[in-house]
## 1
Amino acid sequence: MVDRIADPWGPRTPYGPGQRWPVRVDSFLADGHTEADVQRWVPTASILHSNGDAMDIAVIDDRIVGVRGRAGDRINHGRVDPKDLYGWQANHSPDRLRRPLVREGDRLVETDWDTAMGRIVARSKELLDGPGGWGHFGFYTSGQLFLEEYYTLGVIGKAGLGTPHMDGNTRLCTATAAAAMKASFGTDGQPGSYTDVDHCDAIALWGHNVAETQTVLWMRMLDRRRGPNPPAMLAVDPRATPVAREADVHLALRNGTNMALLNGLLRELIHRGWYDEEYVRAHTLGFDELCRVVADYPVAKVAEICDLPARQIEQAAELLGHSERLLSTVLQGFYQSNQATAAACQVNNLHLIRGMIGRPGAGLYQMNGQPTAQNNRECGADGDLPGLRNWENEEHVAELARLWNVEVDTIPHWAPPTHAMQIFRYAEQGSIKLLWISATNPAVSLPDLVRIRRILAQPELFVVVQDLFLTETAELADVVLPAATWGEKTGTFTSVDRTVHISEKAVEPPGEARADLDIFLDYARRMDFRDADGNPLITWTGPEEVFEAWKECSRGRPCDYTAITYERLRSGGIQWPCTEEHPDGTERLYPDGVFNTDPDYCESYGHDLATGAELLPDEYRAKEPGGRAFLHAAPYQPSPEVPSEEYPLLLTTGRTVYHFHTRTKTGRATQLVHAAPESWVELNPADAGPLGVGEGDLVRIESPRGVVRARARICGVRPGVVFLPFHYGYWDAADGAAPGQGRHDRAANELTITAWDPVSKQPIFKVAAVRVVKEADSGGRPAPAPTVGGSAPLDGAGIPATVGGPAAEAPSRGE
Amino acid sequence: MHLAHYLGLLHKAQERLGDAFTEVGEAHREEPDVFHTCEKLAAQCRGHAGKLAPFARRYAEEAPTEPDRLHSQLFSGTRTGGLGLLRDLQDLYLMAAECDICWAVVGQAAYGARDSELLTVVKACEQETAMQLKWLRTRMKQAAPQALVVAQ
C-alpha cells in the first residue's frame, strides 16, 4: 500500500533505453471494497489532467467505488495519477446540480428542463431574427468535454447559427501549442509519442512542471532516470519544482525572458556546429534568417536579460548539443508567458535544426494542459475549423459546407474565429448578448476577475452555464443546466500524443442531470436548424453516431480517425492518424521529414510572430514550402508588464499536484482537499526577509488590478518572483464570499493582467507586477501549502510533511 | 537634388505615425491587443525616424527650398467605441500606406544617389512598415463584421 498523497509518484520501476516500461497497476477502491467485490469494470481515461492515462471504473450496485489503471494501455502501463485515484468521489458530492435553474430577479430557482431550454431557445430565436443575429451568440467551452460534444457544438455554432464566436478555456492552456505547431509544421498535431521517453538520451522541460501536471509521464521519466544509461535532464523554470530539483541543469530564469534564452541557446548550437546541416537543407526553410536573428544573442547578453549565470546557459547548450535523441516538452511556463508562440516555435526550431523529430527518442511534446483540449482543437468548438482545416482556404471551407450541406457563407470564414478574450470583450460592449458557458469556470480562471464578474453580471447579457456544480460562474447565470460528467456519459477523447480513448458510461447521472451531448442535441432540435435542402441539420441521437460523422469530417486530414471504431477503442487507445492504410494508428509524425506545409493542406498561411499580422495566401505559396518545415525567428521583446518601483515583484501562477483547474472536482475529494486545503503564496527568503515576512505569515499581494490575501510559504522560488496557485476561488472560501458579495481576495486571477500573445491569443498569466505587504503574524502555524512539489519548504524548515494517512492508502502492484 | 524633401516627408510621416499609434493605443486601452501592439509599433516608427535623421541632414545642404504642399494631414484625433476603433485603425492604415510608398520612392532615389547606407536603412524599415499595414488590415478585418453589422 502506498500513501499517494505523501508520494504522488509511487514506487519506481527502473528501466533502460529501448526497454519496455514495466507495468505497475495502481488502484483505489473506497469503503474497504476489494477487487473481488467489483461487479463491473468500465473503460475510461483521465479527465483531471492532460496525460490521457487509461483506467477502469469499478462499479458495485450501480455506484462508482473506485478506479484501477489499465495495465495494457500504451500511455500509463497501469499507473494512475493521485487526482484520478481520489477525484472520482466528487461525482457523489451532495451538492451536485440535479435540476435546471433559472433566474428570477436576484435568485436562481429550480425548474424543469422544458422551462430552462424554453428560455434559452426563446432568447436565441429573438436574437437570431435580424441581420447580424449570428453575432449576438458566444460559446465558451472547455477542455473537459468529449470529442462528440465538441463536434456537435461546432456544427451548431458554425453551420446552425453561423457564428465565429466560439472558443474554449483551451485558449488558456493549449492555444500556443496549436499555434506553434501550425507555424512550424503546417498543421496542429503532436509529432512525438510518449514512448520517446523510453528511447531518449536527454530530456528538456521548457516551462513544464510535469511532476505535478502529468504525474504519470513524470513517473516514466523518473524510471528512466533510475535505470541504466539514464537521460540527461534540463529544466527551465523560475520555481524549484520537483523537475528542477531532479534536473542536471536548472535554469531559473526571470519570468518573461524565454525568447532571449532560446535565441541564445540556438546561437550557441549553431555557433558550435551542433546542428544537422543536411536535415536543415532538405527539410526546413528560414535557416539564414534564424542565424541572422539569433546572432544578436551571445551568452553574456542572454545571461543579463534572463538573470542567469553564463556558465549555466553554456551547460544547457552542451546538454542539448551532445544529445543524440532529445525529447522536449513545453507547457505553461512558455504558453502563458511573454512571446508565447515565438518561444514555443524556438523549441520546434531546436528540434528541426538538430534533425530530431519523427524517430524514437527524438520527440517533441507541445503539451496540452487539459484532458480533452486536443479534441476541442480538432473538432472546431474553439478558434479552429473542424479537421484542422484552414479558414482562409476556400476549398477547405467548401468541404465543410458539402459535408454539412449548408451554404458556404453560412460558415463564418471571413475572419479568424473569435478568441476567448475577444468574446468577453464583445460581451462587455454588449454586442454579444447570449453567452453559453459549458464545463468551465471563467469567474475564477480568466485574468482580471473584477472585470470578468462585471461582464457576467451585466443584466443585458443572457448567460447559460452548463456544469456539475453551482460554480462561481453559474451563480451569475440566467439559466443553469445540470450536466452529467465522466463516468455518467459515453464519448471519446485524445491525449497529447494523439492517443484516442473511449470513456464509457458506468452509472446514471444524479437527479435530472443530462449528458452535455444530449443538451446540445436538444438545443439543436428545439432551434430546428435546417440544411440547404430544408432537412434537419443535425440528426444524431447518440455519441457513436456523432463519432461516425466526425470520422467523415476528419477523412484525409492530419487527424484522420476513419479506421477507429468504438469497438476497437474498448480494447485500448489508438493514435491518430488511423486509416485503412494505417489501421493500427501512427506512432510518430514526420518520420521522413515531410511536413504538412503544402499550401493546399496546411492549417494556416502564417502570422507575423511580433504582431499577429496574417500573411497572405500568395505570399505563403511563393515560399514554395514543398513539405519543408518553417524556422521562425524573432527578437526578444520585454513583457507588457515589468516590475516597477511601485510593484517591484513578478507574479506567476500555476498548479499543485493535488488539484485541477478551479477545484470544481478535486476540491470535493477528501484526500485532495486535506493535502492542499487553502491557497498560499510562495516567496524566496531574499524577498521575504526585507518585508519582515516569515513562514505562515498572512500577506497581502497587490497588483494594479486587485488584492489577494494568502499565507506565505518561504521556499525556493526565484528571488523577485512570487507564486500563487490558481485553483482557489470562492465557492468554499472561509468567509463564504460568493460572486457579487463578500470579499474577493482569494483567487490568483484578481491580480493578473488582461493581455495575450499576438498569435495564439493565449492570456499572459505568468508575468504581472505585484507588491507584497505583511498583514499578520503566523502564530507559529506554517502556510497551508503542500510540502510536496514546487511549494516544498527549504531544507531544515521543520514543517510537518503532507501525508494522506490511511484514507489515502492505495495498492500499487508491480509485474 | 530634391531627395532631402522626400526624406523630410518620410521623416515627418514616420514621426506622425508614431504619435498616432501612441494616441490610438491610449484611446483604446480597453482593447489590450490594440494598446500593446500600438505601443510597440509607435516605438518602431520612432526608430525609423531616428534612422532617417542623419540622411535628411546629409542631403539638406544640397536641397533647394521646401516646395508647397509637401506634407499631408491624415490624422486629427481618436474616436471611441467599436466603430471608432475601426475608423482610428483606418487612419493609421492610410498613414502607414503613405510611409510605405515613401519608402519605395526613397529607396529608388537611394539607388540613384548610389547611397548604399540609405538603401540598407530603407530595406530594413520598409519591411516593418509593410508588416504594420498587414497587422492593421488583420485587426480591421477581425473587427469589421461585429462593429458594422452586429453592434447597435
## 2
Amino acid sequence: MQDEMEEIIIEFITEAEESLDKIEPLFVELERKGEDKDMLNDIFRSMHTIKGAAGFLGFQLIVDVAHASENIMKKVRDGEIAMSRLLMDVLLRSVDMLRLLLRHLKEKDGVTENVSPLVKDLGNALAAAVSKTPETGHHEKTAGEAKLPESAAPVIEKPEIPVMKEVDLTQAHAANGEQHTVAASAPPKQKETLTAALSGEHNQAPEKTAPANGAVKPDTQPQATDDGEPKQEPKQNEMIQSAKDNIQKAQNLRVDVHRIDKVMDLAGEVVLVRNRLLNISNYFDFKYTGDPMTEVLMETVSFLDRVTSDMQLAVMKMRMQPIQKVLSKFPRLVRDISASVKKDVDLQIFGEGTEVDKSVIEHIGDPMTHILRNSIDHGLESSEERIAKGKPQQGKIVINTYQKGNQIVIEIADDGKGMDVNKLKSKAVEKGLMTEDEAQKMSDEAAVDIIFMPGFSTKEVATELSGRGVGMDVVKTNISLLNGYVEVSTVKDVGTTFKICIPLTLAIIQALMVEVDGAKYAIPLSPIEETLKVSRKEIDNITGQSVIVVRDKICPLFELNDLLNTGTTGSSNEDYKYLIVISMGDKRFCIAVDKLLGQEEVVIKTLAGLDTTSSNVLGATITGDGKVVFILDVAGMSRNLLGITKG
Amino acid sequence: MDPSAVGEQILQLVSFTLEKEEYAVDILKVQEINRITEITKVPNAPDYVEGVINLRGKVIPVIHLRKKFGLYHKDSDDSSRIIIMDINGITYGIIVDSVSEVLRIPAGTVEPAPPMAATMSSRFIQGIAKLENRLIILIDIDKLIGEAV
C-alpha cells in the first residue's frame, strides 16, 4: 500500500509539473495578447486540476497557492477584472512556488515553504484589481458563465456523465476536509466551473464520451462499497484523472524511461550481433560459394540486417521528443530577464516540433539559457540606444530549430549591437587570457570565440544576470558533451547569431573505421568533410607544424598516433598517406592514418571508470569480431589542437 | 556454519598472488574470474591502466595491479587472470599473476597493517591475515581503484 501511495504521488508530481510547463508560456502569451478566452480556460483548468489532486493527497500548501491564483484566474476569465502586469507577476510567482513545492515533494526533503506571504499577495493583488473595476454582482457572474452556449447542450444530452463526476469530486472533497475551503470560496461557483470544464472537454471529443463514461463507472462501483477506507480516496482521484486523460490523449502511453533505455541497450546488442553475423556469413559465402545452404544463410542474414536497422530506428524514435519541451520555458525566462534589465524584447520561436533525443532535451536547456541571457544583457541595446540608431524600439530574438541531415540545428539570433572584436581582444589581453602579440595575430573569426574562454567577461561590473565570467564557456562544454559544436557569427549593429549543431541521437553513430599501427579506431562521420590519399611530398612543414593544401586552403595536419600517444612514431615508410579532413564549425584540420577501413554503424558504449578527459576518445564500441574499438573525440581534438586556450 | 553461532565473524576472501606475495579481497566484491583476453590499449591513459576488454558486450577498464603497485613488469602468462570486480558501482578488471583460492578465516586473525614506511601502497592495506605459515595482505580495493582511476 505504501508503494501504491508512492506511485500515486509520483504520478501527481509528474502531471502537475507537466501542467505547469504547459501553462507557463500561456501566461506570457496572455500578457502580450491581452484577453484570450481559450487560453484563460486552459490555464484555469490546469490550475484547478493541480489544486484538486493536491487536495485529495493532502498537500495543503499546494492547495492554498493554487486556490489563491485560481481565484484571480477566475475573475479574469469572467471578465470581472482585467489582466495587469501586477497580476501577472504575482501569478507567475505562484507558478514558481508550486514548482518549488513539487520539488520538495519529489525530493522528500521535508522542507516546508512559507506560502502565506504569497497567498496574501495573491489576495491583495486580486483585491486591488477588483477595486479598480466596478463590483459586479454574483448573478452577473453566472451570466458570464453561460456565455459558453455549447456547454449546456452536452450536459442535457448526457446528463449522467457530468453529474456523476461532480458527485465524485464533491465526495472526495468532503472526505479530505477540503470542502471547508471550497465552501468558503463559493460552492455554487465551484460546481459551475466543473460543469463548464467537463462539458468543455466533451465538446472537444464528443465521440469519446462513451468509453470515458464506461471507464468511470466500473471504478466508482467498488468505491461505493468500500467507502470509508482512506486509501480509496487517492485512487478515486486517479480514476477521474485517468478518465480525463483517456479523453484527451488516448493514443499516449506513459512508460518509465529506464524501460526504454533497456530496450535501447538491447537493440544496441542486437546491432553488434548483426555485425558479427554479417562477418561470419561473408566468410562462408567466400568459402562455400554456390552451396544452396550458404545462399539461404546470406538471405536470412540480409533480412536480419534490414529488420535490425528498422528496429534501431524505431527504438530511437521512441526516445525522441519535440524540442518544444525545452523551448516552452523561454518566453517566461525572456520576460523576466528583459524586465530586470529594462529592455523591451520580442521573442519569436520557430520549429518547436523538431524532434530530438531525450538526452539532448535534458542537456540543451542550460546552454540555451546562457545564450539567451547573454543576448538580452549584452547583445540588445537599450530602447533609447535603439531609437538613436534608427532601429525599432523593441529588440528581437529569434530561436529557430530545424533538422539538417542527421543533425539538429538551433539558431539563436538577436538584432542587437553585435560584438566588437577589438574590444573582445583588448579585454582578453587585460584579463591575462592571452598576450598582446597573440591578440594582434588573431583573425576576427577566431576573436569571436574569445567569449567562450573560461573567465572571460566584458562587463565592468558583474550584474545579477551575467558578467562573472562563467556562462559562455559552460555553453561550449555542455554542447561538446552532446557531441556537438557552437558557432558564432556577428555583424556590428546588425546582430549576433549563435548556431548550435548537435547530432540527432547520442547512442548510435555512423563512423569511419581507420587503422594506425595495427590498431583500429572509429571516427564519427558527421564532422568528416572528405578523405584524401596524398603523397608524402605534398606535405609541407611550417615552424614544426605539418600542413597540407586542401582545395586551395592551408590545413594543419596531425598524425593520429601522435595525438593518441601510442608510443610509435607513425612515420611508416609508405609513400602515400590517407588523410581525413575534419571540419568543426569554421575550423578545419587533417588527421593522417595508415588505412581507411570503411564506414560502419557503431553503438557508443560509455567508458565507466576511466578518465577520458585527456585521451581524445569519447567512448568505445564493439566491432563485429568482438573487439573493443575506441571512438575518437574529434570535437575535443579540435579544441585541444586549435583552441585559442592552447598553451 | 552460521557465523553468529561460532560467535565470531568469518571473512570470506578471494586470494591471489602478485610476485611472491599473497593478497586477498572480499569475496562479495568479486564478480567473476577470467583468463586474459584481448585487451585494447587506451590512448593517453596512466600506465597501470592496461586497457579495456569486452565483457559480454560491456566495455570495462582493466587495471594491471603489478604496475599499480610499482612492481617490475612481467608479461602475462597462462596463470595470469583478470578478476572482474564491482568497485563503487563500476565494473573493473584487475590483472593478477594468479588466483589461488577462496579463504574462510575468522576476523580475529586479521591484524591492522603495521606502520610501514609511508609508501603509496600501504594506504590501501586493510589488514594482514595470519594463517599457519603464511601472511595474506587484505586489500581495500575501493580505496585502491576508486581513488585513482
## 3
Amino acid sequence: MSTPTVDKKPPVKPGERDGDRWNRILRDIVAGNAAVAFFSVLLAVIVGSLLIMFTDEQVRDTFGYITARPSDFLTASWDAISGAYGALFRGSVYNNQADDFATAIRPLTETLKFAGPLIAAGLGVGLAFRASMFNIGGRGQMLLAGAASGWVGYQFEWPWPIHLAVAIIAGMVAGALWGGLAGFLKARTGAHEVIVTIMLNYVGFYLVFFALATQSLLQAPNSANPKSLPMKESATLPKLLGDRYNLHLGFLLALVAVAVVWWILNRSSLGFRIRAVGENPAAARTAGIDVGRTYTIVMLIAGALVGLAGANQVLGTVTSGITTDLDAGIGFDAITVALLGRSRPVGILFAGLLFGAFKAGGFAMQASQNIPVDIVLVIQSLIVLFIAAPPLVRAIFRLPAREA
Amino acid sequence: MSEQTSTPTTAPGVSPAHEIQLRAVTVVDRKAPTMFAILTIGLALIVGFGSQEGDTSFRLAVPTDFFELPTVTVPSTATTWLLVLVCAALAAYSFFLLTRKQNTRLWLVVLFALAWMTGFLAWAGADATLPVVGLLAGSLAVAVPLVFGAMGGVLGERSGVVNIAIDGQLLFGAFAAAMIGSLTGSTWAGLGAAMVAGLLVAAVLGVFAISYMVDQVIVGVVLNVLIIGITSFMFSQVLAPNAATLNHPPRFERWAIPVLGDIPLVGPIFFRQTPIVYLLYIAVALVTWALYRTKWGLRVRAVGEHPKAADTVGIKVNRTRFRTILLGGAIAGMGGAFYTLVSVPQFNREMTGGAGYIALAAVIFGKWDPIRATLAALLFGFASNLQGVLSVIGSPVPSQFMLMLPYVVTIFAVAGLVGRSRAPAADGIPYRTDNH
C-alpha cells in the first residue's frame, strides 16, 4: 500500500543565474504540495458552494425564471453562499456581529477546542501512515480510552494534578492496547490492519456499550441510561481562559504531542525505523530492522495518541460522563486530518486547526443559516480526495507538473 | 493486503534439463477443524456453566403451509448436550480429514453451523417458544443488503480493487431509491436508480483508484464519508422538508411463489419474499457462474491475481478492472434499495449503520468466493437478528455480545489464528501501464 511519502526537493543546479532560480522557486511553489493543498481546498469549497446553492429554496425559485431575470438568480445564489461562508467564518474565527471583543473572539477559542482532539488523533493516524499502516480504528481506540479515562475520573478521589494525570495516562494506555492489538496481529499473523481496526471499532463500541449498560461496571448507579457518573473536579482538564471560554488544557496537550511526534519521527532511531519500514519493509528487514516489532510499536504509540484524544473528550470537552458517542466522529475525521497534513506533525497541526474551524463554524452555520452541518463532511472528504490525486488537481487548474 | 505472505498453491518442479516433473503440492486448511474445536468447546462451556432449566419449544409452522408441522418441544439442557456431541463428532471428522490431507467440505461447515446454532438456541431459549420461521426470515431480511454488498465486494477484489466503499454504495443506493421511487411512484424505477447510484460511487472509486492510482483504501474510506455527508445534507435540506413528495417511496409487495412458497419451513423463509430477494438469488448464482465458468470471469480473476501476465496476453487490465467494479457497484446499489423499498419505507441519515463494513467482512470471511461470502453474510445476518429475538424472549447473553460476534469472528478469520485467508494476489495494487 502506498502512503503519502516524503517528497524530495530537486537539487538546485550549481551556477544557476538568479533569474532562473526565482523562476524555479516560483515553479516549485506552484507545482509543490502546498499549491495542490491550496487548490484542493478551493475546489472542495467550490463544490460545496454549488451544493449549498442548488439546495437553497430561494435559488431554486429564481432558477425557474432565470432567462427572464438572471440577476435575481445570481443575487439569490450569492446570498446563499456568502451567508453560509460568512456564518462559517463568524462561527470559527471572529464574530464581527458581537458587542465586545471578548465575545467576538470566542469562536476562535471554540475552533482551538475542537482542534485539540483532531490534532492528537490525527497524529495517531499519521504516525501509522509513516510506517505504511492504515489506522482506521480511531473510533474504537477513542471509545476504549474515553472509558478508561472516565472510569479513573469518576471512581477515585485524588488531589488535582495527580488525578488528572493518572486519568489521562489510563486513557492513553487503553488506546495504546487497542491499537497495539492490530499492530501485533499484523506482525504475528499478517492480518491486514485495515480490516482488523475496522472490526475493532465495532468490538470496542459494543464492549463500551455493554459496560455502560451494566450496573456493576460503568453505568451510573440507579440509572437506566447507558451513561456513567460525571467526572470529579480533580480529574478535569482546567479551562485555559477562564469560565467564559470552553477552551481547555487539552489543546496544549495536543501541541505537546505534535512536538513529541515530530521528535520521534525526525530525531530518534525509532522514527528512522518507522520511516524505513514505511518506505520499504523488505529493505528494512534486510537492513536488520525488526519489521514486525516496529508495526506493533507504531500501533501502540498511534493508539496512545488517539487515546489522548479520547481522554481529552471525556475529561475536557464533555465532562458529564462517558457515553458511546464520546468520539463525536473524531476517530474518522482524524483520517482526513492526517491525509490533509500529509502525515507530518506540523502539517497535521494545521490540518487539525482547519478542520477544527470547520467543526466550530459548521454548527454556527447550521444554527444561523439553516444549512445542515453535514456540508462540512462533504467539503472535508472532497479536500482529502483531491489532495490524494494531485494529477487531477493539476489538470483542473492547469498547474505545471512536478519535475521527476 | 499486499503484505500477506501466502502459502504456495502450486510449485512448479525444477528438474534436470530434459524431463519435466511436476511436484504435487496439497494445501490443507487447518482453519475449519480448529474453528470447529474452539466452537464446540465454547458451546460445552456455555451449557456446562450456564445450566438452564426447563424445555425449549421450536415453533415451525405458519398458516400458509401445505400441512402443519408440529411445534417441537425438547428438554433444554439435554438437547444442548446432545448437539455438543454432534458438533464434537463433526469436528473429529474434520480433523480426521486433515490427517488424510483433505480439506473440510462446505457441506460439513454448513452442517456444523446448523448443529451449533440449534444447540445454542436450545440453551438460550429455555422455557420459551422460539418462532423459527420468523427468526430465519428476519435473518434473511437483515442479510439481504449484506449479500448484495458482498457480491459487489467479491467482484471488485477478484479484479484487484479493494472496495471499502461498499457502505457508500449501499447508502447512496438507499438514498436514490427513496428519492426516485417517491418521484416516479414506481418501485422498479427506484431500484434502477439505486443501481445507477451504486455505479456512480464505483465510477468515482475507479477514477481515483484506477486512473489516478490513489491508494484504494483511502479512496474507499473517504468516499464513505463523502456519501454520508452528501446524503445527510440532502436529507436535511431537501428530503425532510418535502417528505411527502421526495421521501415517501412505494414498497415492494411480497410475491409468494406458487407451490414453493407453501412448503413448510422453507417456503415462508425463502419463497414468500419481495422481488429484490429473488433478484438476490439470481445475482449470487450469476456472479458465481460468471466468475468461474465464463471467459469474462477468467479474465477478471487473471487481472486480480497477476495483472502483468494478463496484460501480456492482451487483456486490458485497467479497463477490465473498471468494468468489474462498475458492475459490482450496481449490484451493491441494489442492496441499498432494499433498505428504502422494503425494510423502512423512507430514507434516514446514515441508515445503513455501517452494513457495508460487515459486507466487507463477509467477503474476507468467505475467502473472496461468492457462495462462501453469501453464507458468511447470512451468518452475520442471523447473529444480528438473533439478538433481537433473544432479547424478546429474555436471553441469558447480553445483546452487545451477540452484536459483536460477526466482528470478532472476522478478526479471527483475517488474523489467521486458525489458518490463512488468501486474498487475490494483486488485490489493492494499482496497475501501471507504460503510458502512465
## 4
Amino acid sequence: MNRQSFLVLAGSLLGVGRLLGQAAAEAQVEGYLFFASNEAAAPAQEEAVTAEAALLRSLEGRLGKVFPFGHFHLIGRHAQKVFKEYESWVVPSKDLCLKLDSRGPAEGGGVKVHLQLWQDTKVLVKSDAALLPGQPIFLGGPSWRRGRLIFVVMLK
Amino acid sequence: MKAPLTSDDVSEEFLTRWIDGQVSEEEAERVGRSPEVAALLAREVDLARGVGGLLREHMPTALEPPGPEFFTRRVLEEIRGEVSLGVARGARRRWWKMAWVAPMASAAAVALLFLAASGGRLGGGEPRVARAYAPDPKVLAHAFYSEAAEATVIDLEGLEPVPDGREIRAYAVAEAGPAVPGRGQLFHAANGGRAVLALVGEGAEGPRWRALE
C-alpha cells in the first residue's frame, strides 16, 4: 500500500468512526424566525414558509404575551438535530442564525445548551440555557421595518 | 445635617456602592453638596465603564463572563483584589488607575479575571433559566422566564436596527448533516431537498455562509 492509499484509508476510517460516535443525537430542535409587526401584511418573501397551524397559533399567542406586536409573521424555519459534543447551526436565515452547543441532558427531559445568536459577523448574545419540552426560548432581536425580528428555538 | 463629603471620605467600599447605585439618600445628598467629590465620582464611573468596554473588546468569543454583572461592580472588586496584591495601600488607587488605561494591562487582567472568576464554573452547573451576555457594551440582554408565555425570554435592547432597505432572505430548511471536511455543511430546503445554503467557514468573525441559489 502506498502512502497516498494509506492516508485515504486512514481518513475514511476516521470519518466512519466520527460518524458512528455522533450517531446519537441528543435532541431535535426547531428554529423559527418571526417578523413581529403591527401590520397584517407579511413581508415579501421569495418562498412562503409555513408550519403546522396549531403550533403556529400557539407560538404567535405566546409571543404576543412577551412582545407588544399585533402580528407575528413566520419568515423562516429550520429543524436540526443537536449532536453531543458537536456544534449545530439553526439557520432559518443566514442574516440571523443560532449556534447551539449541547451541554448534556437537563432535568425535566430537555437539554442544556450554550447558544449564540449571530447577525452577519456579529454575535448579538451568548447564553447558557435549558431547552425543555414545551418551553421555547424567545430571542428578541433587532428592529426592522417598523417591527422586530424574533428568533424562537424549541425542542421538536 | 452632616458635612459634605470630601475626597478623603471616598473609600473603595463607598466607590463600589456608588457605582452600583447602592448609596443611601443621605450619602447621595452629601455628595451633591460637594462639587469636588461629585466630579471625582463621575470620573470613577466613566473609568469603570471604559474598563468594562475594554474587557468586552478583549474577551475571546469562546469565553463568557460568569454573569451580566461581571463588567460593573465585580470588575472593580476582582481587579482590585487580584491586581493590587502587594501594592502599598496608599499607592493602590493611583496604580490601578494607570493600569486601567493600558491595553496590555487590561488584556492581562482579562486572563487573570477569567481564571479567578470562572474557577471551572464555565460550562458547568444547571442554568436557573438562562444566563445571557451581550458582547457589545451598547446592548443589554435581559433573560427571564415568562410564566404567561411559558417560555424563556432573552430580550436584547440597544441593537442596531436592520436597515429597512435590506431584504431578510429566509428559508424553510430541513435537517443539515454533519460537516464534511473540505466541503463544509450543506443546508437543504425542506421542500425538494435542494441545497440552499452552505456553511463554508467559521472563525472569530462568525460563520461564513454561501447562498446556493
